[in-house]
């Protein structure tokens, strides 16, 4: 099949390599707002560089993969929907709820496919945790702890465009809480700190955040995130039940050192970033998308799933600003 890829930055370049080597992709056409960058990615992957996004849609592609800047996602999703094309889009659909709802309405009206890039759904550890929880192996689940820690802050120019730490970073943890447990978030209480680099204060964002989520069955969930974890890229989830307790993301490359005399030593090669940690998951989600396009698989992460995670992030941001618990049903459903 012919695939159009829009956006050839860091994640777009990764997708270009994965798609160009996929058995079911006969042709890959790439475009980027920076033409030379698209040309270079095309050269390295054997793809064809399009002069513009318009050319992508004019080339009679079978599906579109969107990995461009966040602000462009909603418009591109709508354009693909109106063209009758299946779309894979990196999260988020849009930076806010109104934009997300508008894009999802276009997809629904067109009757097309939209799969969102929540890659952790395709990670072996998270999938195994989901199976253990859903099978009852842990017994009644009472506590979940989730964390995402970036090794270094992003460029200052990115922060005002990111949507903030809850929407940009912790939204992955919120999606995993729902996906692994099968429960919905009933209430959140969130706080954050901007005591790190000044660029976070200047952007109205925080560099470190924490949230307590109460699920609809009473399970308590803590989620934390930081942009300033010098030890390395650290993404984990712990799930504790009455019968057992398991951990996701705890392996020989986890950037954690035990303070116990007989504890684990520092990792020789700590995870440096998200592409290294979740590379196989990124490849698996694109493979799933191509199977969805071929009609072999139900959509594993449609727009409604992305909307649910964004609602939790929005509730957390509201809670942080107003310093109070926020119930999930306070946010307009649209």
In a few lines, what is going on in this structure?
The protein is an alpha/beta fold and 334 residues long.
Task: Present the secondary structure layout.
Blueprint: E1 2-6, H1 10-20, E2 27-31, H2 35-45, E3 48-49, H3 53-58, E4 63-66, H4 73-82, E5 87-90, H5 97-110, E6 114-117, H6 124-135, E7 141-149, H7 159-162, H8 165-181, E8 185-193, H9 198-202, E9 208-215, E10 220-226, E11 234-241, E12 245-248, H10 274-293, H11 303-322, E13 326-327
Parallel strand pairs: 1-2, 1-4, 2-3, 4-5, 5-6, 7-10
Antiparallel strand pairs: 7-11, 8-9, 8-13, 9-10, 11-12
Helix pairs in contact: 1-2, 1-10, 4-5, 5-11, 6-8, 8-11
How does this structure look, described?
The longest helix has 20 residues, at 274-293. It is globular and about 60 Å long. It has two domains: 2-120 and 282-300, NAD(P)-binding Rossmann-like Domain (Rossmann fold, 3-Layer(aba) Sandwich), CATH 3.40.50.720; 121-277 and 308-330, Dihydrodipicolinate Reductase, domain 2. The protein has a seven-stranded mixed beta sheet. The protein contains eleven helices and 13 strands. Helices cover 39% and strands 21% of the residues. It has 334 residues and is an alpha/beta fold.
């Amino acid at each position: 099949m012919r695939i159009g890829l829009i956006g050839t930055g860091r994640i777009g370049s990764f997708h270009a390599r994965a798609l160009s080597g996929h058995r079911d992709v006969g042709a890959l056409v790439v475009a980027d707002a920076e033409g030379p960058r698209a040309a270079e990615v095309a050269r390295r992957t054997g793809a064809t560089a399009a002069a513009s996004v318009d050319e992508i849609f004019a080339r009679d592609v079978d599906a579109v993969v969107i990995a461009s800047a966040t602000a462009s996602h909603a418009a591109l999703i709508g354009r693909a929907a109106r063209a009758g094309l299946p779309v894979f889009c990196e999260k988020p659909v849009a930076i806010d709820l109104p934009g997300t709802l508008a894009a999802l309405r276009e997809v629904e009206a067109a009757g097309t496919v939209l799969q969102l890039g929540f890659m952790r759904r395709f990670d072996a550890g998270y999938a195994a945790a989901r199976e253990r929880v859903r099978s009852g192996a842990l017994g009644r689940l009472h506590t979940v702890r989730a964390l995402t820690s970036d090794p270094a802050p992003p460029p200052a120019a990115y922060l005002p465009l990111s949507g903030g730490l809850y929407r940009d970073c912790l939204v992955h943890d919120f999606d995993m809480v729902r996906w692994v447990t099968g429960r919905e978030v009933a209430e959140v209480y969130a706080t954050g700190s901007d005591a790190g680099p000044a660029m976070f204060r200047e952007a109205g964002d925080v560099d470190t955040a924490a949230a307590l989520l109460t699920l609809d069955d009473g399970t308590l969930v803590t989620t934390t995130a930081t942009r300033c974890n010098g030890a390395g890229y650290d993404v984990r989830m712990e799930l504790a039940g009455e019968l057992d307790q398991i951990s996701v993301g705890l392996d020989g490359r986890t950037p954690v050192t035990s303070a116990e005399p007989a504890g684990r030593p520092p990792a020789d090669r700590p995870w440096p970033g998200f592409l290294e940690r979740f590379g196989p998951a990124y490849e698996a989600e694109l493979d799933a998308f191509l199977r969805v396009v071929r009609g072999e698989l139900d959509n594993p992460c449609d727009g409604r799933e992305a909307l649910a995670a964004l609602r939790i992030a929005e509730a957390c941001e509201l809670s942080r600003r107003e310093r109070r618990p926020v119930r999930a049903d306070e946010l307009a459903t649209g």
